[in-house]
Amino acid sequence: MAAITAPPPPPPASTSYRLPRRWSLTRIAAASSSPSSRFRPSSSRRPSSSTSLFAAGSSGGGGEILHVSPPSPPANPPGAPVYVTLPADAVGPGGRVARRRAMGASLAALAAAGVAGIAFELWWGVVERQGPGEYDWAGYLDLAAMARRHGLRVRAILAFHQCGAGPHDPLWIPLPQWVVEEMDKVPDLSYTNRYQQRNKEYISLGCDSLPVLKGRSPMQAYSDFMRSFRNTFEDYLGAIVTEVQVGMGPGGELRYPSCPTEKLSQSGSSSELGEFQCYDKFMQASLSAHAQILGIQKWGSGGSIGTDGSQQNLEESSFFRADGGYWDTPYGRFFLEWYSGMLVLHGERLCMIADTIFSGTGVTISGKVAGIHWHYYTCAHPSELTAGYYNTLLRDGYLPIAQMFAKYKAALCCGCFDLRDTKKTNPESSPEGTLRQLVGAAKMCNLPLNGENSVTRLDDASLNQVIRSSRLYSGRSSGTSFSFNYVRMNKSLFEFHNWSRFTKFVRQMSDARTFLARLDVRRGQQYLSSMSVVWVVSRACAYT
């Protein structure tokens, strides 16, 4: 292995501490109690600045490096706190933290940069993989303990969807095997389009309340999962785990899988209108019952009318075309109100369960809405309609969702903060228009807002766009808040040029008052420069 050269030492100071060049690997972590040890409310959320130097006592990896915890942040930091979403496989399929040394060093670097906390998915397919009601939280408890040691808050994302496109995907995390087996036995548990193509990313919301999972309904399974999480993480809730984001659909978002999740990030996805996902027998039964209640049975069979034609050109589709499309007829309004209403009802069921389970724990619950912007500058907004958002030139489809979230005091999470309109290359798309409408709905309902980037990149243009987009939530009412999740951490984040951009971004988002690029501890204590932390991370990665 090629020799790794240490970075330049920090600027001269009587209290500085230089990294010994002979040490081969670091463990930037405190010797701590087990993950299940109790976090005492009387202690600070971050280790105090008076904490003495410490070193890990873990086996392997050679020598250790002394490190000082950053000072405690203010209770309500000014500006917009920045969180960083961990890699999807931070906890592997076996339920244990992956690349543990690199993870510990990375969390130390994030804390040094003034990041408020981390977010990570707790995958249903990992936690309940062994069987119904058998939960393994060990890896996620370990992550929470690591975050606590480094003074980072945690946003827990309860992920009831699959990750990746299939077994060939390096980040493949399917639903629990026992759930997949039930979906194989009863294919209608999967979302289904008019071509009878099945999507197994997430269980169809048409069977939310039916006992289709070995005697339990999906809602009961989600509720049991949340309750087990609450009981297991009881000592962390409110102090370290400050927010629980409830997965509500494919990609964790409240939407239908009108377009497979992996295609949403592809360049050609903007041309697809998407497919209505209402052709499994449970959704068909719901549509029929809805039509019967309204006394128009003929509209309740066979799914959506007029979705023939091209899925690339909306003017070739009888349903979506601007002039005379079904979307703007009594039938279209009937169908779209039912289709979008089912999605809102699904979200409300989950919010109601989460609100009941986490009441009194001190955590905020949240849900995520997708930024479907491909056809925002058209009359019908077809890609939004097929995703379940009844948002057209004539109707606001996001306000009902925001109102539902407000009913349960849930925060709203949405992406598109890093995207700009490109009228020359894609005149129908408007991520900025979509975001303005989502933020407007959140402000009208006085919702806390969590912004996210849609593409993982650290160029100046994208980060500056995030800062500009964040200003949309300025002037918010008392009691609401705004924060930003950077999605997601990877090795390139810690490259020197990217790290410089990222720390500058955190400073700008936080108005410079919570930025800790250098751990400068007064009263004769030592410090470790932020760039030295990055060097430490790169070395940890090399040995993982």
From TrEMBL:
Pro residues bias (residue ranges): 1-13, 70-80
Record Pfam families: Glyco_hydro_14
Keyword Manganese: no
Taxonomic superkingdom: Eukaryota
Active-site residues per Swiss-Prot or TrEMBL entry: 253 (proton donor), 452 (proton acceptor)
EC number of the protein: 3.2.1.2
Disordered: annotated segments: 1-20, 28-80
Transmembrane feature ranges: 105-126
Residue ranges, compositional bias (Low complexity): 32-57
Entry annotated with the keyword Membrane: yes
The protein's name in its UniProt record: Beta-amylase
Native species: Panicum miliaceum (Proso millet)
